[in-house]
Amino acid sequence: MSKVAVIGSGNVGATTVQRLAELNIADIVMVDIVEGLPQGKALDILQAAPLVGYDVDVIGTNDYADIFDSDVVVVTAGIARKPGMERDDLLATNIKITQQVCANIEKYAPDAIIMTVTNPLDIITYAALRCTQFDRNRVFGMSGLLDSSRFASFIAKEMNCSVRDVNAMVLGGHGDSMVPLPKYTTVAGIPLNKLMDENTISKIVDRTINAGAEIVGYMKNGSAFYAPSAAIAAMVEAILKDTKRIVPASAFLNGEYGQHDICLGVPVKLGRDGVEEIIELELSSQEMEALQISANAVREGIEKISP
Ligand SMILES: NC(=O)c1ccc[n+]([C@@H]2O[C@H](COP(=O)([O-])OP(=O)(O)OC[C@H]3O[C@@H](n4cnc5c(N)ncnc54)[C@H](O)[C@@H]3O)[C@@H](O)[C@H]2O)c1
Ligand SMILES: O=C(O)C[C@H](O)C(=O)O
């Protein structure tokens, strides 16, 4: 049986554990610094197994040693934003947490694949890569799959069609400068711009970019976790089952898309080795420019954490 560790047992972490248990693909270890929190939630999830029908082990712990032998470690530890905050406002606190978490992953699960979730996502992913010095295929962030799922759900609502027929693509940093790509977004194979006028597409693009903030605005004291955990579980499944799914994720770029020394959302092929390939889409000069603006925003954050 594969093993997945989920660091942070808050909203995203605990929901991710529930979704992973329901996929029935790995034993799961939940870790948090709050005493009793991961233990209680793990027991609760385990006690649903006879009702839901999964048959994996779920344990909660405050001891990082328990993540030994994990195939994948999902990092959700850190604070979430409140109304009025940007994701970048979380950096000062979450960078320290990420460094502690990564030191423990390096110590106890040195062969694991790391999927970061903590915000600001691209900067945290870069920090995790630098901190662990793992190869770039083994450290990447969940972001674009969530953003694409949001884009797809808004398109399906607008068209009053099944969301299953929508295939959406969002590149760039997981922030206000993310780059939804209508050109690479289709409904039953039909390009979006053949189905909607520019004004409607532009409204859906704006709503996608602001989707995280829209939820923070409603929730007042926390951010989204149902869709984020669904994206995380889908990516973990692609890795453990070696499905080679192609999804957007924040990956370290070494010349791809003209970018160097940065983690940024691009389409990647996910398999048992993590990011097995970075897919380079042909972009128009306008799309390239938007990606460059997004990269510049991420780079500003990276400079803040670089010694
Ligand atoms: N990448 C994305 O698309 C995406 C989506 C949703 C949330 N997020 C981010 O994920 C993070 C978590 O969000 P949440 O809603 O679960 O927050 P939360 O406050 O509900 O949970 C965070 C948990 O992390 C724990 N924690 C803090 N330091 C820790 C450490 N050193 N080791 C282990 N656990 C530690 C806390 O005790 C808490 O239980 C936030 O930074 C949020 O912005 C990212
Ligand atoms: O919006 C946030 O702060 C959380 C997450 O990045 C999201 O997009 O839901």
Automatic annotation (TrEMBL):
Keywords: NAD, Oxidoreductase, Tricarboxylic acid cycle
Entry binding sites for substrate: 81, 87, 119, 150
Enzyme kind, highest EC tier: oxidoreductase
EC number: 1.1.1.37
GO molecular function list: L-lactate dehydrogenase (NAD+) activity; L-malate dehydrogenase (NAD+) activity
Active site (UniProt): 174
GO BP annotation list: lactate metabolic process; tricarboxylic acid cycle
Keyword presence, Oxidoreductase: yes
Residue ranges annotated for the Lactate/malate dehydrogenase C-terminal domain, each copy included: 146-305
InterPro entries attached to this UniProt entry: L-lactate/malate_DH (IPR001557), Lactate/malate_DH_C (IPR022383), Lactate/malate_DH_N (IPR001236), Lactate_DH/Glyco_Ohase_4_C (IPR015955), Malate_DH_type3 (IPR011275), NAD(P)-bd_dom_sf (IPR036291)
Binding annotation for NAD(+): 8-13, 32, 94, 117-119
Catalytic activity: (S)-malate + NAD(+) = oxaloacetate + NADH + H(+)
All copies of domain Lactate/malate dehydrogenase N-terminal, residue ranges: 3-141
Record function comment: Catalyzes the reversible oxidation of malate to oxaloacetate.
Family: Belongs to the LDH/MDH superfamily.
PANTHER family cross-referenced by the UniProt entry: L-2-HYDROXYCARBOXYLATE DEHYDROGENASE (NAD(P)(+)), L-LACTATE DEHYDROGENASE
Protein name stated in the entry: Malate dehydrogenase
Organism classification: Archaea, Methanobacteriati, Methanobacteriota, Stenosarchaea group, Methanomicrobia
